[in-house]
Fold:
Amino acid sequence: MNEIIKKDNIKFTDLKLDWKKALYLSAKPLLDDGSIKEGFIENIIENIEKNGPYINVGKGIAIAHTKDSSFVNEDSLSLLRLSCPITIGEDKGSPIYNLFTLATTGSDKHLKYLSSLTKNLSDESILKEFEDATSRSHIHKLLNNLDDEKIKFATVCAEGIVSSFMIKENISNILSYWGVRDKVEIFIYNIDNYETAKNKAIDEWFVSKDAEDKVDLGDDYTVLDSVIDRVELEKKLKTVAEKYDLLNGKKNPNMF
Structure:
C-alpha cells in the first residue's frame, strides 16, 4: 500500500460516545468498503475486556487492532477524530481524541503499519500539527508523510472547460504573485468529467456557483460566486492557502 491511510477513511464526530460505539464508528469506513468483515470490532472489544485498554498508546491516541487476520480482507487504516474524548474502563486518566482502526492481513504488515504510524506521531512537531489539524487533507498528508508532495487544486464549472480554465489561470497568477506557485498543481474539469479526478486525490476544489448542486466533491471545496471576480477569488484563495499552510504564516499583499 502506497499510503498509510486514505483520505476518505478520516472522519470527524461531535457525538458523545462510549468507547464501544466509538470503535464501531471508527471502523465503519473499513466495513463499508469491504476491507474488514463483520466480527472484526467484536474481536477487539473481546480482547480489551480480557486484557485491558491495550489499544491506548497515550497522548490522546488509540490504535484499535487485533492479531486475528481472519476478519480482514485488505490492509487498511481509518481514523475517527473525536471532539468529545472517550475513556476505556477504569482508564479515566488517559482520554482518547484520535481513534485509529488498523486492519492487516499478516503480522509483518501489522508491525510495519504500526511502525509507520508511530514514527510520524513520535515527532513532537508533527504530533502538535496533527492535533491542531482541522481538515482531512491536512491530516492525510501528515500521516502519509507527504509534506514534499504538491498540494492539488482543481476547478470545475457548469459552463464548460473555458470557465474552469479562466479560474485556473487566475489562481495560478495569484499563487505566482505570492511566490508559492511551485507548491501547487492545478487541474481543470467540467461537470461531465470531474469524476475522473478521483485517482488524483484532489486536496481542494474551486467550483462555480452554477455547478455546486451538480457535483459531489466531498468536504474540501470552495464555491465561487463569479468565475471572473479576481478580488473574490483572491480572498477565498487566501483562506484555502492558510488551511494548507502554503504561506507559512506570511501576510502577502493583495494582488487585486
Observations:
- Helices lie at 19-32, 40-51, 107-122, 124-132, 136-143, 161-178, 230-243.
- The first helix runs from residue 19 to 32.
- The radius of gyration is 21 Å.
- The mean pLDDT is 86.
